[in-house]
Design brief:
By secondary structure, this protein is mainly alpha-helical. Helices cover 23% and strands 5% of the residues. It is built from three helices and two strands, in the order ββααα. Strands 1-2 form a two-stranded antiparallel sheet. The two termini are 32 Å apart.
């Protein structure tokens, strides 16, 4: 069985690496961001700064009327594909900066996979 390179970061200890991880390399933190983002979203809603059902176009330059809300993104019911189109396979987010996000957001209505609010489908919004 092959081992996966691992890096454990802590606020109280030095990074711990194993199985060939290099501290000078960037890694995709993947699904770790989902609970953090969800927690922040709920706290902002509780503080009245935003509403879970606010349309996405309030925050990103998406076409008006997509029907996608913050709640849809959080619940994975926005009918978005797993990853945005035309990303590289090995490091899909390596070049995904603010400009790339705006470019994808402006075309979001062209690559949804169905109606919003339907069945959950894992995506990386």
């Amino acid at each position: 069985m092959s081992h996966v390179p691992v890096c454990v970061l802590s606020s109280s200890r030095a990074p711990q690496v194993s199985h060939g991880h290099d501290l000078d390399r960037f890694v995709q933190i993947g699904s770790l961001t989902k609970p953090l983002t969800g927690t922040l979203l709920v706290r902002l809603a509780a503080a009245g700064i935003l509403q879970l059902d606010d349309p996405l176009e309030r925050f990103l330059p998406v076409p008006a009327g997509t029907g996608i809300t913050l709640r849809h993104l959080a619940e994975h019911t926005a009918a978005l594909p797993r990853v945005p189109p035309r990303l590289r396979r090995l490091a899909p987010y390596a070049d995904f900066d603010a400009g790339a996000l705006d470019s994808v957001a402006q075309r979001i209505d062209s690559f949804t996979t169905g109606a919003t609010g339907g069945k959950e489908k894992h995506s990386n919004p």
